[in-house]
Amino acid sequence: MFKSNPQSNEFIPVTQVQIPPEAQVDYNSDTQTQIRFLVPTYIGYMDPRTSRFQYQVTMSGRGKPQPNPRAGISSLIRDWRIEDGMAQSTLEEVLDSNVLTAQTWGYSQNASITHKRTMFEGQSLTPEVGDSTYWTGGAVGNDWNAAPITVANDPKATTLQIQHTLYNSGLLGDGQDAKCFPLVATKGLRLQLNLENAQRACTFQTGNLGIGKTGREGEQLCALGTALLLAGDPKVALDTAFPIMVLGVAEALAAGTGHTGVNKQTLGLPNNNPFSIGDALWAGTDGAANEEKLGIITEMTVDGGTGQLVLMVCPDRALQSGWGYAHPVGDSLFVRSEDRVNGYPASADIPVEFHAAMAQKLNYTLSNVEYLVSQVRPPSQYVEAMLNQVNGKGLTIDFRCWSTYRNTLSALNGLTTNWIPTESTRVYSCLSTPLGQNNQLSIENDSFKPLTNGARNYTYSWGNSLYPNRPVHLERNSQTIPKPNALALIELEKCLVNAGIPVRDLQRSTDRFNIGRAFSKYGGTTSLQGQTLSLRIEYQNAVDRLMINNYVHSLRRLTIRQGSIQAY
Questions:
Q1: Of 95, 98, 144, 344, which is least surrounded by CB within 10 A?
Q2: What is the pTM of this model?
């Protein structure tokens, strides 16, 4: 591939070409999940380092959902594939690319890079409600202490302009080894981006606070501050709404239920109110006893005496009916994640002005999608030489790439074996990410967060050889106050650096728990052909069922001859 000579004074023209997708529609995680581009031959040569995908993104749903902060907007792109222009050969493909990006972002970040990602790539780091990249609270900014939050001023989705490269690609990414690509030799390129399920790609702004499928999920549920008597306070009219207090931090602690309090504004703490107008509010005792739907939240305000959050709730039940159960102060108070994911149907028992807020479903929309390709015009002598190669012995292009191998661990304890069936002959390193199976389609949990899950030690095995030759200990990661194991961090750093990922931040490594191994030194590669690579992890007192994404980083060769394109 063409690479300019820094000693040359020759000017290399670069022009930006806008490439629309094959289907010029709005894309989302439900109905339009594949974005396809044809980068045409006439562009000639493109510079992938300065080429960008550009589109507008808008979130929808209650609870202020946003792309997972671990990967920003890249959370929404699950897989991608690059083919030649005739769709005869797959040149590069990465499955679960968003999970890989979530891991590498954490280690390659610094303050400057994080700010850039926040500005251009949709990374939202703040958990405070009312200070969101994707939502605006209008005049009151969702400060329920300053003014009541109603259906009119509840935070509304804002539309962001996004630009980003094709992450994890050796051909079309912005890595240090990326060079201008000869589209004329491959008759153009075909790109396909597969969008991620919204439940996996997104998180609520306040995480899993106040979210539960049942009342069994104790610690992150909120605490009821208003005693509700059995069959008391009947609903006398359609617009009847009852004030229900949510305990603050100190009050929830004093109640002794283990529930989390909602920060009072008077304490100067971040606004962590997890509720939205139109949410169906539930109450129940831990263990799912006495669980019932209280009604629909129609307003949020502050108790003048205590400074605690007050929810105005319109019961979704017939007139002249009361609560089904008695609920004491300190009972569980929560919304169901499935109500937010699927939307809540209109009800004749709820005033019509709240039906639209109730019906909101979790989703995201990408609109005005285009690929901004940087067209390069290299010197004529280079073009002639390249075409002679294609028509003669063939043009070879070496590039780095990631390959994904996924496994599910059936055993929870003891020594487990995770098979990685790579046959690559030029391997740099392998990065292994253990993920919770139950977290993958559960928005109330962080789908991209790796889990230690009681891991005691690990080693990679290839044939009769161990890498390293003794197990790497991991016990400190599972302590009550997690701490990293030094050797494990050293091995992980070598893995990332060998894969061309600069390591700038090793803080919070227990929150970004990954296992890694470099299989070469000094820029070289190692063949893993002929034997099966595996990762052996010993677990003790494991809780979560795991799936492990293994990302093998290797050198791939693209060979282009007249009438033939091969990548191997």
A1: 95
A2: 0.92
Listed in sequence order, the DSSP H helices in 392-473 are none
Please tell me whether residues 96 and 124 are part of one structural domain. Answer: yes
Judging by DSSP bridges, how do beta strands 332-336 and 211-212 pair with one another? Answer: parallel
Which residues, other chains included, contact 494 with Cβ-Cβ below 8 Å and sequence gap of 6+?
429, 516, 517, 518
Asked if 315 and 365 sit in the same domain, the reply is no
User: How far apart (Å, rounded) are the C-alpha atoms in residues 206 and 363?
Assistant: 17
Number of domains into which the chain is organized: 3
Model pLDDT for residues 355-399, shown as the tens digit of each residue: 999 999 999 999 999 999 999 988 888 888 888 888 888 889 999
Q: Are 150 and 85 found together in one domain? A: yes
CATH number at residue 431: 2.60.120.730
Q: Which position has the token pair 């509304």? A: 156
State residue 419's pLDDT score. 93
pLDDT band for 215, please (50, 70, 90 cuts).
Answer: very low
Write down the pLDDT at residue 487: 93
Pairing type for strands 159-164 and 52-60 reads antiparallel
Same domain, 352 and 425: no
Length reported for the chain: 568
Domain end position, chosen among 371, 391, 411 = 391
The single-letter DSSP state of residue 526 is B
432 shares its domain with 556? yes
Q: Across-strand partners of 462?
A: 465, 533
Residue 477 contacts by C-beta under 8 Å, 6 or more apart in sequence?
452, 455, 483, 484, 485, 488, 510, 513
Same domain, 440 and 553: yes
Same domain, 293 and 178: no
Pick the range with the lowest mean pLDDT from 150-159, 172-181, 321-330, 339-348: 172-181
Region of 164 on the Ramachandran plot (φ > 0 left; ψ -120 to 50 alpha; else beta): beta
Amino acid at 354: F
What is the predicted pLDDT for the residue at 9?
57
Dihedral angle at the C-alpha atoms of 281, 287, 290, 295, nearest 10 degrees?
A: 10
Range of the domain at 507: 394-568
Are residues 161 and 65 both part of a single domain? yes
Mean pLDDT of the chain: 88
